[in-house]
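Appendix C: a fully annotated inverse folding record. The material below is reproduced so that readers can follow the format used throughout the book. The structure is listed first as tokens, followed by the designed sequence.
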């Protein structure tokens, strides 16, 4: 079986930010991680994609948002087009408007911390 895949939208090279901790936590749990950041570059040794459309995976196991709700709303169409089994709205990325818009597009948003879901405490990631 192939590894589960995750796109981390709002991935960061700053190891103190949750967008970086999520990259590391998912890597440690065996996920194939696709960091997304409009700046591109490299994070934790991985190529950073400037948009979800660039990610080579056809469909993703999960998409995890680390961007403000106003940014997330603008990404929903791209997320729905790519397809994912789980859409994680991490603390600070969620809003009632975003949740409602995601549901309208047939997505099932999970409003919780995707790092904690992996059984990892973000505080342990330093």
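Designed amino acids, in order:
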């Amino acid at each position: 079986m192939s590894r589960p895949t995750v796109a981390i939208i709002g991935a960061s090279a700053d190891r103190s930010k949750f967008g970086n901790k999520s990259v590391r936590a998912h890597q440690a749990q065996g996920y194939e991680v696709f960091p997304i950041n409009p700046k591109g570059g490299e994070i934790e040794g991985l190529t950073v994609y400037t948009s979800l459309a660039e990610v080579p995976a056809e469909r993703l196991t999960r998409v995890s948002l680390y961007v403000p709700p106003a940014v997330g709303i603008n990404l929903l169409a791209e997320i729905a087009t790519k397809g994912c089994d789980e859409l994680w709205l991490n603390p600070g990325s969620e809003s009632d408007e975003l949740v409602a818009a995601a549901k309208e597009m047939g997505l099932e948003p999970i409003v919780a911390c995707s790092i904690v879901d992996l059984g990892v405490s973000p505080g342990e990631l330093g």
